[in-house]
């Protein structure tokens, strides 16, 4: 009997098979995870459909459910955080934050109204536009923020009046299964179902004819497969995909202050964040100063098992990602990159790779052109504002970008010209938890977050009544 179970139609259940989930810090098996068979997938989707037929409840009832989930998760925060660090690798403080964000999101969402617009209301006619839930949502999640992203998809689906079947990444399924266990007694049977398995079960889920919409967070490559699968019966899609996010530091900044923020923007969660800084452009006059400061900070980082309270950077999450980072770094070195710190994988068990700062390579090298999603940061010099904007925009991806300058107006002007879904000027975060989140170009389609997330989970219905 595994310690973790799937949630299908309000029941916790095992599959006939299971697979091992590995702790990336030790390479030891944490536990076995059930595999959903095709029959169990069918049961989950049917339960989600039936639950909607029975009614998803009023908005106020749904708010109560989400608030109860928030309280339950909060009461189990430590247990979830420990498990999250074990399956994902991040330091325990960052895992604790991830669980807190999920709790905060559950509560914040309940403050939103679902819009109803009256376009006309006069002696002749009334025309209103309301938002209608889509139906059964397939929620597919990645391994970098497995708990938060699963909660996010659940919140937006339920709040908007849908039901959901969530399938976590096979690298990090356990905290999502734990979520199912915690909410089992709160959520009416079938409104939230959680199934686990490999990529194939995800592919079957998104193809299922009873699934009305897909909310996917993951790589660009998988996003394209999902868009193609969705096209068959025109399912709605929200695709939150990868980015090759740039930070631009102008020559007028306080280097020490900005470098510290940019450093953690690049290396937090071992660089495995969709909106992490993945290429850093520094105006030439302060280039060496920024490089030196970034290297100095890198050398203070304590790489280790995230369960150790002193650790500030954990391992990469899985062996594929670990090998990819080594491959991209070797390719950059072969093309003349200079490695200023790190650069050599740690010996022994675990997918540990130290924070690595690289110079001497430009666009045309894979480390600059592709999303590395790991702790190797290239720093590039630029001279003119127009030049750097062109270089940043010259990418097939467009998730987020950062601009740092004492001249806030100039920062905003630059931000306005960047082809990305999220711009942050003089801040490492978006300063509102209700802002839309998502990318331009191949970084995605649609938006999560705030009222935009509700729009993605609903369709507009126009009701026109002639008096
Ligand atoms: P991935 O695309 O490999 O896998 C994501 C999920 O899709 C997993 O659950 C996987 O099992 C499933 N899957 C794989 N093939 C599938 C298929 N054909 N049909 C249906 N499901 C399938 O991504 P990953 O490696 O887990 O995550 C890393 C990527 O996610 C990075 O590119 C990162 O930038 C991106 N990401 C984006 C955001 C965002 O909001 N934009 C947030 C976090 C991560």
TrEMBL record:
PROSITE patterns hit by this protein: ALDEHYDE_DEHYDR_CYS, ALDEHYDE_DEHYDR_GLU
Ranges for domain Aldehyde dehydrogenase come to 17-462
Keyword line:
Coiled coil, Oxidoreductase
Pfam families per UniProt: Aldedh
- Residue runs in coiled coils: 59-86
The residues responsible for catalysis, as annotated, are 240
Protein family (similarity comment): Belongs to the aldehyde dehydrogenase family.
Q: Which PANTHER family match?
A: ALDEHYDE DEHYDROGENASE-RELATED (PTHR11699)
Q: Know the name of this protein?
A: Aldehyde dehydrogenase domain-containing protein
State the species of origin: Piscirickettsia litoralis
């Amino acid at each position: 009997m595994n310690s973790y179970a799937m949630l299908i139609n309000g029941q916790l259940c095992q599959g006939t098979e299971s697979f091992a989930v590995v702790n990336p810090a030790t390479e030891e098996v944490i536990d076995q995870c059930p595999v959903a068979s095709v029959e169990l997938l069918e049961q989950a989707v049917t339960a989600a459909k039936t639950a909607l037929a029975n009614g998803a409840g009023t908005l106020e009832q749904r708010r109560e459910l989400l608030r109860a989930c928030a309280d339950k998760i909060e009461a189990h925060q430590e247990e979830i955080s420990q498990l999250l660090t074990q399956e994902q690798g991040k330091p325990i403080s960052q895992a604790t934050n991830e669980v807190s964000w999920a709790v905060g999101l559950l509560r914040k969402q309940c403050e939103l109204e679902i819009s109803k617009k009256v376009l006309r209301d006069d002696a002749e006619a009334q025309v209103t536009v309301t938002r209608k839930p889509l139906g059964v949502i397939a929620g597919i999640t990645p391994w970098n923020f497995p708990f938060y992203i699963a909660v996010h998809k659940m919140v937006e689906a339920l709040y908007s009046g849908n039901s959901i079947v969530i399938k976590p990444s096979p690298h990090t399924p356990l905290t999502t299964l734990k979520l199912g266990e915690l909410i089992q007694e709160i959520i009416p049977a079938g409104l939230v179902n959680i199934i686990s398995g490999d990529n194939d079960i995800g592919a079957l889920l998104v193809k299922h004819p009873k699934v009305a919409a897909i909310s996917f967070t993951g790589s660009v490559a998988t996003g394209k497969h999902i868009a193609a699968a969705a096209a068959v019966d025109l399912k709605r899609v929200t695709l939150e995909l990868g980015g090759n996010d740039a930070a631009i530091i102008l020559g007028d900044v306080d280097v020490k202050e900005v470098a510290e923020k940019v450093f953690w923007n690049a290396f937090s969660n071992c660089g495995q964040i969709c909106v992490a800084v993945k290429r850093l452009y520094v105006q030439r006059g302060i280039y060496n100063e920024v490089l030196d400061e970034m290297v100095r900070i890198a050398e203070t980082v304590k790489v280790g098992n995230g369960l150790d309270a002193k650790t500030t950077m954990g391992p990469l999450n899985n062996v594929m990602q670990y090998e990819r980072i080594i491959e991209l770094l070797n390719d950059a070195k072969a093309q003349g990159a200079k490695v200023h710190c790190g650069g050599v994988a740690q010996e022994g068990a675990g997918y540990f790779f130290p924070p690595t700062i690289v110079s001497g390579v430009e666009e045309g090298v894979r480390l600059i052109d592709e999303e590395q999603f790991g702790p190797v940061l290239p720093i590039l010099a630029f001279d003119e504002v127009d030049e750097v904007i062109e270089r940043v925009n010259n990418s097939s991806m467009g998730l987020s970008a950062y601009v740092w300058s004492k001249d806030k107006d100039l920062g905003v002007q630059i931000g306005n010209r960047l082809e990305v879904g999220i711009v942050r000027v003089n801040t490492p975060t978006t300063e509102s938890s209700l802002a839309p989140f998502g990318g331009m170009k191949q970084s995605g389609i649609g938006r999560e977050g705030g009222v935009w997330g509700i729009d993605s989970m609903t369709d507009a219905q126009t009701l026109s009544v002639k008096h």
